[in-house]
Design goal:
This protein is an all-alpha fold. It is built from seven helices and no strands. It folds into two domains: 31 residues, no CATH class; 90 residues, no CATH class.
Length: 153
């Protein structure tokens, strides 16, 4: 007996009756493509909900704190570099802080930086932020320099 197309479910029921097989899927009338929620699917759903709740529902860093962080960064940076470079570096760093941390995690990060006892994860993040922001700042300054050179010509 060949089961093709939309007749698959009907055909399966007939086969089950013929051979005395009863399966839960047939009794409940599920189609072939439908599946139960398995432990793996429920685990994946729990992971997604947990990730979403940590990233979306966590307290974001207040704008005033980010602005103060940027100002502090620029003051420290401008002692040895020009203002344009410091603006680019600090803007990049503050954006990365805002993306990575919620408010509580940011406070813990700042405390670790002040004490000098930095976790491996935060140490890696700091180094990565420095490298990424330095490359972005360099590209921005080159683009601005090229733009001013074109205007002068």
């Amino acid at each position: 007996m060949a089961c093709l197309g939309d007749r698959r479910l009907i055909c399966r029921r007939k086969m089950a009756k013929m051979y005395g097989q009863t399966s839960r899927r047939i009794r409940k009338g599920r189609k072939m493509g439908q599946q139960k929620w398995t432990v793996g699917r429920l685990g994946a759903l729990a992971f997604v909900i947990g990730f979403w709740s940590n990233t979306v529902l966590a307290d974001p860093i207040p704008e005033e704190i980010l602005a103060a962080q940027k100002d502090e960064c620029q003051l420290d940076c401008e002692e040895a570099n020009d203002e344009e470079l410091c603006e680019a570096l600090c803007s990049c760093a503050v954006k990365r802080f805002d993306r990575k941390f919620d408010y509580q995690a940011f406070l813990e990060f700042k405390q670790q930086m002040a004490s000098g006892l930095i976790s491996d994860d935060n140490q890696n993040f700091s180094q990565e932020t420095g490298l990424v922001c330095a490359m972005e700042a360099e590209q921005l300054i080159k683009a601005r320099k090229n733009q001013t050179d074109r205007i002068e010509q």
